[in-house]
Amino acid sequence: MIARAVVVLLLxxxxxxxxxVVVASVNPTEMLAFPPSGFSLRWYEHALTYPQFRRAAVxxxxxxxxxxxxxxxxxxxxxxxxxxxxxRLRGFWTAVLLSPLVVPGVAAGLGLLILAARLGLxxxxxxxxxxxxxxxxxxxxxxxxxxxxxxDPMLERAAASLGARPWRVFRMVTLPLLRPxxxxxxxxxxxxxxxxxxxxLFVSTRVTEILxxxxxxxxxxxTDPTMAAVSTLFIGATFVVVFAADxxxxxxxVFQIDTHR
Amino acid sequence: xxxxxxxxxxSVLTFVPGSLKTGGxxxxxxxxxxxxxxxxxxxxxxxxxxxTTILTLLASYPVAYALARTPSARVRSLILVLTLAPFFTxxxxxxxxxxxxxxxxxxxxxxxxxxxxxxxxxxxxxFSMPTMILILAAAISxxDPVYERAAASLGARPSRVFLRVTLPLSLPGIVSGSLVVFAWTFSAFPTPELLGGGRVxxxxxxxxxxxxxxxxxxGSGAFAVVALVVTLLVLxxxxxxxxxxxxxxxxxxx
Amino acid sequence: xxxxxxxxxxxxxxxxxxxxLDAVDLAVYEGEMLSLLGPSGCGKTTTLNVIxxxxxxxxxxxxxxxxxxxxxxxxxxxxxVVFQSYALFPHMSVADNVAFGLRxxxxxxxxxxxxxxEALTLVRLPEAGxxxxxxxxxxxxxxxxxxxxxxxxxxxLLLDEPLAALDRKLxxxxxxxxxxxxxxxxxxxxxxxxxQHEALGLSDRVAVMNAxxxxxxxxxxxxxxxxxxxFVADFIGASTVLEGRVVDARTVVLAGGQRVEVxxxxxxxxxxxxxxxVRPERxxxxxxxxxxxxxxxxxxxxxxxxxxxxxxxxxxxxxGRLLATVSGPALFQPGDAATISVPxxxxxxxxxxxxx
Lengths: 261, 254, 356
Fold this sequence. Notes:
Order of helices and strands of chain A: HHHHHHHHHHHH
CATH topology of chain A: MetI-like fold
Oligomer: heterotrimer
Number of helices of chain B: 12
Strand content of chain B: under 5%
Number of strands of chain B: 2
Strand content of chain A: under 5%
Structural class of chain B: mainly alpha
CATH architecture of chain A: Orthogonal Bundle
């Protein structure tokens, strides 16, 4: 009983900020108050009409779409190569491709900033997109690798024994069976890219900045609940995505939490 | 990779104030890291990271255990979604939410929390919990319940079963989760930036201040290199230990 | 004469430190069913994979109807393969699975439908076409896999432990059915198994493999009745090995001191050491020892009742242990003394030097 209460309390701790943000977002006054003195959607209106948020939202869509479109085929090819081919230095390549997971954001951001400055590419979407591709790739590769590892190579052998040449084997057997992994990879790519902040802060300008960077700037400069409204929209979208993902992909399998029953 | 190379190169070049051009080779940037006013930030970073790790571990274990061992699939799913949602919400939204919670307008806290180390600590623990919970839950769920049943059949009451069997067998998860959280917290940026309000600074905030406000890229680079090296070292230790622990009894390969 | 369809010539394959195949020579004849039998890791599946084209050997050649196909990829070889896990494509219906090979060959649409129906009828599943593989039982999936392999009219049918995933009763049914279908189609078949009953019951010839080599290749009766090596004798059928010293051409003194008469094809020289194999069903336990056969004294060590027969372990007086089977329940208790008799022609000789 006590144990259950502790777990509930801890989960409440995890959820508390979310609840507060949602409550704050419908607060009618500029000064935050609890309990709220009424209900108002004015901060949503302000958030949706604030020019810098609109520009940043467009940038987010461009950067996320472009980086997902690039990272998915690159990551799939890399995952297939890493799992299937007896590459020399396989450990090295895996480490290189997965390294963005462990490199601190400020180090990666500053490194990319210096590099972009050298190449004269500052204030360019290309740098931001390249940065996002690099950051998203580990997630794509991991999720596709899981699918590749679960793919019974006998199915591909069977197709070959029935006369399918390699490209046909890939088209008719490999690709359709990797579809769930590719879908998960796409989902991860979008979530990571949409939420990416630290590296983007370093390599974007007022013109190219994406939503999290614009939100950061807003929080630093203003205290009104507009940010709460934007955050609520963000949280809502995330909840929908995570719920859908759990239904479609059974997240506990993705995170290797098995049950003995 | 190339970007990190550029980072290393710049961190050993001389900073020319007011310019992005750099001078000759120097170790001044790294000596500056050890100057008293900066050393304080590094010390704060180490203390905050250590405290975050310990508190995160304590707060995450019960949730992870519940996630791994709750019989009801629906409850498990609920815990998982509640765990993952902040994980996917993004740093800015989460940190902003804590600014609201820790500020005095919603809850009248007896002590000041926002823009104080305590507030940063709370934010960092919250930020690290999903990661820790997932790592611990994976470790606990890989323990075959047959060991726990065996202990119970030998007369161990539930608390003893937990202490003598479950906890020791989940040690690899505890170790790897702690090291990962320490490494990530060491280079945390948005949480101390917003919750510290300039009064509490960790190493990543110094990197950003020097790079984006003072345009001292070489000096900033030296701090970034320190953050990078510490993070990679800690994670290298983690994977080394995990490689050894993987052979430990009671753990089926994932 | 026998036409050779598949030939392996000096085929070797190594996986890291493991020599999976060690200079294997093998000829598969037209229309026969040949099984590769051996324990796991003996190289039997590698042999099949080399024939199928999934694994390229480091040395040696693979011939198909006399043509060297060693470097030819699997999809060009036109062989039918049934996998242990069946490897039915989970994202396609049963009919699409069976049609797969036909479509890859560009067979016209109308013919595809007709041949799929024909193949499914052959495996007695004419109605299964629209179903998904996951909706079928293991035995049905096995038949679909067979139909998918046969529909392309392969030159050779390769079966990798095709019955291993089935439970015992179904396995026995499918064994008979597989034999019927193979005879009906008359296709040359190579069949991998670790189950001696499957190998002996199904095949025209058996290749017993061990440690990357073929230890013996012969008809089921040959490998059972005249094992060429101790490994073959041990692996096929339960058996007991007794050591002895030759007294004269027909007499051997067993290690325990008892004397037996033997009829061996080889002429024995006095004083030599021999290893004799005895199949348990050739040992008669109890009853009057009235015949001329070798009568030995023994004590019952253990009795195991197995339904239609019982298995006895016997300690020979003076030393040596013998396995015996008697039909029905045994009327002995452990510790009982018993006389047993073994006819002279029940003793087989295995080389003392070869493998163990």
